[in-house]
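Researcher: We plan to redesign the surface later, but first we want a full-length starting point. C-alpha cells attached.
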C-alpha cells in the first residue's frame, strides 16, 4: 500500500500521508487539510476519526479481540489481578513481585480520606443518584490533592496515581453505603485491593468480615474487563479535558460524568430495568423475545448486541462463566435472574438472534453478577467507573506525554447569515 493518498478537488490534487498502526490500521493524516484546501472533514460522533496515536488498548470488533498492551483480555482475566492489570495499563508492563508489592503497600498507606470529605458525603440527600455523588466527591478530592500533576515528573505522577487508585475504592464504598443507608467502613490495610473494596462495601457493623473467594474473583474480573476500551466516550472526554492542561483528577471527574449516560456506562442499569419489567408483566420471556424481533415495536433486548463487537464480545465470554459460578455457588434465588437466564437461552437458540450475531454483551452478565451480590441497580455504573480508573489514568498520562494539542473540533455553521437588529 502507498504511504500517501491523493485527494482531487476540481483541477487540483493534494497528497496526504497515511498513518499506519502496528495492527495494520490505516488513517489519512489530514492535519493540513484546511490550510491546504480550505476544507474540513464532517464526522459527527467521530466514528471515522482517529483522535490520537495510542499504545494502550487494541480492539477489533469484527474478530472479537480486546488486548491491553498486547495481552489478550482472556489471558489477563484468567491469570492476573485487577491491580496487576492497572499497573500494566498505567506503567506499560506487568509488575514483577517487588513492583507489585511496592504499589500495593503504597496504596494501602494512602487508603484514607480527609474527614471533611465525609461531611460532603453526609450532605447529599439520600435519594441522590450514586453517579452524581461519585462525580462530586471525585471533584472534591482535588481540593485535598494537587490540582495539576506534573506529568514529566515520574515521582509526582506515581504519587498522584497511587492517591487516586487508593482513594477511589473508598469513595465507591462510601457511595454504596450511603445508597443503602449504612455507616461507612474503614479501609483495612491487611487486605488485597479487591478484598478491601468488598470489605468496605459489604461488612456489617461489628461483623468479623470473611471475604468470599467467589465474590472477590467476580469483582476482580469485572474490574479487569472494564479497565480500558480505547477511545470510548468517557475516555475521549478524559483526554480532551486533559488536553486543556486540566489536572488528572479534574479530567477523570469529567470522564465519570460522561460514563453516567445511558448510552455508555448506564446501559447495564437498563438490563435490570428490562428484566424487572418482564417480571412485573408475568415473566413471559417469549413475549418479549417476539417484541424484540418485531420491527414495528421499538423494544430491543437490552444487553444484546454491541456497537463495536459484531461477532461476539470477548469480555462477555469471560464473564458469563463467572456469572454462572456466582449464581450456582452462592445459591442465589432471584426470579429476576431466572428471567435473565431464560432470555439468554431462548435468544441464543433463536434464528433472529443467531443470524444477526446478537449475543449477550458484557453488560448483560455484569448486571447479573452485581445484582447477585446485592449491589443496587443505580450503583452498577459506579462499579464500572472503579474498573475504568486505571484506563483513564493511562490515557490521560499518554495524552500529556505525547504533548497532544488542545482538543478543538470545528463545525459546519448552518445558522443565520449576518443580519441587522
Ligand atoms: N434486540 C433486538 N434486535 C436487535 C438488537 C437487540 N438488542 N440489537 C440489534 N438488533 C437488530 C437490529 O434491529 C438490526 O436488525 P435488522 O438487520 O433486521 O435491521 C440488526 O440487529 C443489526 O443491529 P444494528 O442496529 O445494526 O446494531 P447497532 O450496531 O446499530 O446497535 C446496539 C448496537 C445499539 C448495542 C444494539 O444492539 C442495541 O440497541 N442493543 C441493546 C442495548 C444495549 O445492550 N446496549 C449496550 C451495549 S454495550 C455498550 O455499548 C457499552
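Model: Full-length starting sequence:
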Amino acid at each position: 500500500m502507498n504511504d500517501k493518498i491523493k485527494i482531487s478537488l476540481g483541477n487540483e490534487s493534494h497528497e496526504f500521508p497515511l498513518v499506519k498502526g502496528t495492527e495494520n490500521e490505516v488513517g489519512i493524516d489530514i492535519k493540513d487539510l484546511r490550510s491546504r484546501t480550505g476544507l474540513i472533514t464532517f464526522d459527527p460522533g467521530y466514528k471515522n476519526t482517529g483522535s490520537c496515536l495510542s499504545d494502550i488498548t487494541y480492539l477489533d470488533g469484527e474478530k472479537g479481540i480486546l488486548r491491553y498492551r498486547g495481552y489478550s483480555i482472556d489471558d489477563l482475566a484468567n491469570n492476573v489481578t485487577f491491580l496487576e492489570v492497572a499497573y500494566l495499563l498505567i506503567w506499560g508492563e506487568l509488575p514483577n513481585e517487588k513492583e507489585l508489592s511496592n504499589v500495593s503497600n503504597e496504596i494501602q498507606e494512602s487508603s484514607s480520606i480527609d474527614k471533611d470529605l465525609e461531611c460532603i458525603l453526609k450532605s447529599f440527600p439520600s435519594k441522590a443518584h450514586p453517579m452524581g455523588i461519585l462525580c462530586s466527591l471525585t471533584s472534591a478530592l482535588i481540593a485535598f490533592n494537587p490540582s495539576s500533576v506534573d506529568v514529566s515528573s515520574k515521582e509526582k505522577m506515581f504519587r498522584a496515581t497511587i492517591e487516586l487508585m487508593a482513594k477511589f475504592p473508598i469513595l465507591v464504598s462510601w457511595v454504596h453505603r450511603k445508597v443503602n443507608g449504612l455507616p461507612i467502613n474503614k479501609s483495612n490495610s491487611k487486605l488485597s485491593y479487591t478484598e478491601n473494596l468488598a470489605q468496605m462495601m459489604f461488612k456489617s457493623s461489628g461483623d468479623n468480615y470473611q471475604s468470599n473467594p467467589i465474590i472477590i474473583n467476580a469483582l476482580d474480573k469485572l474490574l479487569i474487563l472494564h479497565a480500558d476500551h480505547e477511545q470510548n466516550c468517557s475516555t475521549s472526554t478524559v483526554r480532551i479535558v486533559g488536553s486543556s492542561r486540566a489536572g488528572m483528577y479534574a479530567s477523570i471527574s469529567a470522564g465519570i460524568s460522561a460514563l453516567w449516560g445511558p448510552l455508555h456506562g448506564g446501559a447495564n442499569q437498563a438490563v435490570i430495568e428490562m428484566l424487572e419489567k418482564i417480571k412485573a408483566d408475568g415473566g413471559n420471556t417469549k413475549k418479549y423475545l417476539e417484541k424484540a424481533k418485531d420491527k414495528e415495536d421499538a423494544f430491543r433486548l437490552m444487553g444484546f448486541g454491541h456497537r463495536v463487537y459484531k461477532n461476539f464480545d470477548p469480555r462477555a465470554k469471560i464473564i458469563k462463566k463467572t456469572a454462572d459460578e456466582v449464581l450456582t455457588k452462592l445459591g442465589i434465588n432471584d426470579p429476576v435472574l431466572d428471567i435473565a437466564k431464560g432470555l439468554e437461552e431462548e435468544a441464543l437458540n433463536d434464528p433472529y438472534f443467531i443470524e444477526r450475531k446478537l449475543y449477550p454483551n458484557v453488560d448483560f452478565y455484569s448486571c447479573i453478577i452485581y445484582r447477585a451480590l446485592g449491589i443496587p441497580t443505580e450503583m452498577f455504573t459506579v462499579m464500572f467507573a472503579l474498573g475504568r480508573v486505571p484506563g483513564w489514568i493511562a490515557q490521560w498520562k499518554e495524552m500529556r506525554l505525547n504533548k497532544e494539542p488542545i482538543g478543538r473540533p470545528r463545525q459546519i455553521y448552518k445558522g443565520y447569515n449576518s443580519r441587522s437588529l
